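Hey L., structure's done. Input below.
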Amino acid sequence: MIASPVSFDNTQNAFEYKSDAELKKARFLFRSMGNALLVKWGIRITPWAIRARLPIKGIIRKTIFSQFVGGETLEQTASVARKLNSFQVQAILDYGVEGGDDGETGFDHACSEFIRVINYASSQSNIPFISIKVTGFARFELLEKLDSSLDSASGPLMKRYASALASFTEGEFAEWKRVQARMHLICEVAAAKDVGILVDAEETWIQDPVDVLCIQMMAEFNKEKVIVFNTVQFYRHDRLSFLKDMLEAALLKDFVLGVKLVRGAYMEKERERAEAHGYTSPIQKDKQATDRDYNSGVAFCMDHLDHISVIIASHNEYSNLFATHLLLEKKLPLNHPYVHFSQLYGMSDNITFNLAKAGCSVSKYLPFGPIEDVVPYLMRRAEENSSLSGQTGRELTLIQKELDRRKRLHIP
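Output:
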C-alpha cells in the first residue's frame, strides 16, 4: 500500500456519527443484502409493490431508505446534511426527479425542480454541488438519435456535432434547442448562486449528446470559477482518451475542465445491448483494466490542476489513497480547491470520515425524494452490495470492528 496520511481502518472516525443502535441497524441491513436470494426477490417485488400501492413504504423507509437516502423532502434531508457538516463532511444533493410521461411539461417541471434544489443548496454552507440528469429534462429517443448521428460522423466530438444536427427534422431541432435552453438556465442559476452542477453519466448510446451539452456549458460558465462538471465512467475502455480530449477542448476554448471520475454503472445493460445489436462492447475487458484507467485518470487530473477541477467519486480505497499520495508528492494541500472526494451516503464511511479527519475536501452523495421516485436507486444499491466478498463484506467487517471496540471501552 502507498504512503498516505489517511488510514481507512480507523473505525472510530468512520462511525463517530452513528449510535450503537444505528450501527446495529446497518449491520442487519448489510447482512440482509448479503443474501443473494433475498436481494433477487426484493429487487423484483419492491417496485411492483410500490406501484400496486401495497403498504410497504413504512418498512422501506425504516430500512434501506434511511441507510442510503437523506429524506423524502429537502427539509428532512437538511438534518442529515447538518449532521454530516458537524464532522466536516459536505453533501451533494441529488433529487430523483424524472421528466415522466408528461412530455415537455414534465421536462420543464424537472428543470424547475433542479433550480429549486440549487436555490436551497446556495443557502447552506456545506452543500457545494447538486447532481442532475439530462434525461430528467430531455427525451431519451431524441438523445439516442443525436448520439447515433454523432457516431456516424468522423473527427472530434464538437466537429461531429455540427454535422449531426443535420439529421434532425425541424421539430426535433426545436426540441433540442429547448433541451439546451433548460440546461443553460440550470447552469446560469447555479453560476449566480455559486453552486456546482454535476452532470450524471448516461448509457453509451445517449452519452455523446450529454458530453456535447457539458462542453458547451463549461465553455461558458467555467471561466472564472468551476460550475459544470461532466462525469467520466472508467468501466468504458475509451474514457481515458476522452478525458484527455476534453482537456484539449478546455485549453482551446479557455475554460477550466470540471470532471467527476467514477468507475460507473450500466455495465450489464451495456454488455447485453452490445451483444443484441452486434457491436463491440464499450466495457473494459476486466476490473483490472477499469482500475488501471481510473487511477491513470486520477494521475492525469493531478498533473493538470491548473486546468482541471476533479471530483474523485470512488469507493475504492486504493484510488483515494493514491490521490492523497499524489497531492503530498506534489507538495499540494490535501484540501486543494480543485480536488474533492465523494462517496455515496450509507456506504464507505471509513473512507469519507477519515478523509475529512485528514483535512480533505470530501462529501457524501445524498439522494432525496419520495420513496417511489428513489426505489430504482435503492434497488441498484441493494444489487451492488449483494456480494459478501465485496463491498458488503468490507462494510460488515468495519461495523463489527467498531461495535467490538465500543463494547471493550463500554462506550454507550
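The mean pLDDT is 90. The chain is about 60% helix and 10% strand.

-- N.
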